[in-house]
TrEMBL record:
Listed GO biological process terms: methylation
InterPro entries per record: SAM-dependent_MTases_sf (IPR029063)
Keywords: Methyltransferase, Transferase
Keyword Thylakoid on entry: no
SUPFAM superfamilies named in the record: S-adenosyl-L-methionine-dependent methyltransferases
Protein name in UniProt: Class I SAM-dependent methyltransferase
Lineage: Bacteria, Pseudomonadati, Bacteroidota, Bacteroidia, Bacteroidales
């Protein structure tokens, strides 16, 4: 298997890299992967992940909910209930931040298509991209969505979209800088880029360390903080216009993290940590388990 070896930080180009921890793939393989951090800018990433063309088997598990849509178990049942609530919240956020009730939207990494379908129902012209064939088929069969393969990102004309969304997708993308350049090109001058990613400086990330479920190696290659994603955006011609916490993520991630630790009563312990994480984020939203960032092109 070909693996990706990163010798220079993709954010700042620095070569002073240190190992900060070793994490386990609890979903698919049981393999371990090192997390490295750049000593110059603090950006953290997973070393030695399978290259993009070969990582597919690490997603081929019924437990990987964004692709399988499984409702098995209490944690996944909760995930579905929260997602139903968050779909409406995300749709309202798009309208608020884009200053338009309808427009052209690209959803990258659409998974099984719930968000794309929600925006389509609200009258938006929606294009959706998804790497996983099973997830694309689900979106087609359940919502009638014509979800495109990942190569379609490079087939759209410049300035094609008023809004581009990546909901927990950016952390998966191997060609990070190339994708950000393409996003800049595809947006209209007044368009908005909305990115949701886990926050590895969050309350629950610091509590669980190597067991934090949102490290999700090797599927998650990049591990962002509010500071590093803002630096990445600036590098590619964007400014951060807003940021919003995703407090519900702390509950789901904490329950999974307790499960990874082999804790008894993982559900209850995760709920307790999620509650503490919720209150922590109320005081400082940059401690939220996941964050939504809104970017605009620099004028």
């Amino acid at each position: 298997m070909n693996k990706l070896t990163i010798n220079a930080c993709p954010l700042c180009g620095g070569t002073h890299l240190k190992r900060v921890m070793t994490c386990t793939d609890f979903y698919a393989s049981g393999e371990q992967f090192d997390l490295l951090s750049c000593e110059d800018c603090g950006f953290t990433f997973t070393q030695g992940v399978p290259v993009e063309a070969e990582i597919g088997r690490y997603y081929e598990t019924p437990d990987y909910i964004s692709h399988s849509d499984t409702k098995k178990g209490a944690m996944n049942t909760i995930y579905h209930q929260v997602r139903k609530y968050m779909l409406g919240k995300k749709a309202r956020l798009v309208v608020k931040e884009s200053h338009r009730k309808q427009g052209r939207l690209l959803d990258i990494g659409t998974g099984t298509g719930y968000f794309a379908e929600a925006m389509d129902q609200r009258g938006w012209e929606v294009e959706a991209i998804e790497k996983n064939a099973q997830a694309r088929l689900f979106a087609k069969e359940h919502f009638g969505l014509d979800v495109k393969e990942e190569g379609a990102l490079y087939e759209f004309e410049p300035g094609s979209f008023d809004v581009i969304t990546l909901w927990h997708v950016m952390e998966h993308l191997e060609h990070l800088n190339e994708v950000w350049d393409k996003l800049y090109e595809l947006l209209t001058n007044r368009g908005v880029l909305i990115v949701a990613v886990p926050n590895c400086s969050s309350y629950d990330a610091l509590k669980y360390g190597e067991y934090w479920a949102a490290y999700d190696v090797p599927r998650h290659l990049w591990h962002f903080t509010p500071a590093t994603i803002q630096q990445l955006a600036s590098k590619h011609g964007f400014i951060m216009a807003a940021r919003h916490p995703m407090p519900f993520d702390a509950f789901y991630v904490s329950m999974l993290s307790e499960k990874h630790r082999g804790s008894a009563f993982a559900f209850l312990k995760g709920m307790w940590t999620g509650t503490k994480g919720w209150f922590s984020a109320l005081g400082k939203k940059e401690r939220s388990s996941s964050m939504i960032y809104v970017f605009r092109k620099k004028r």
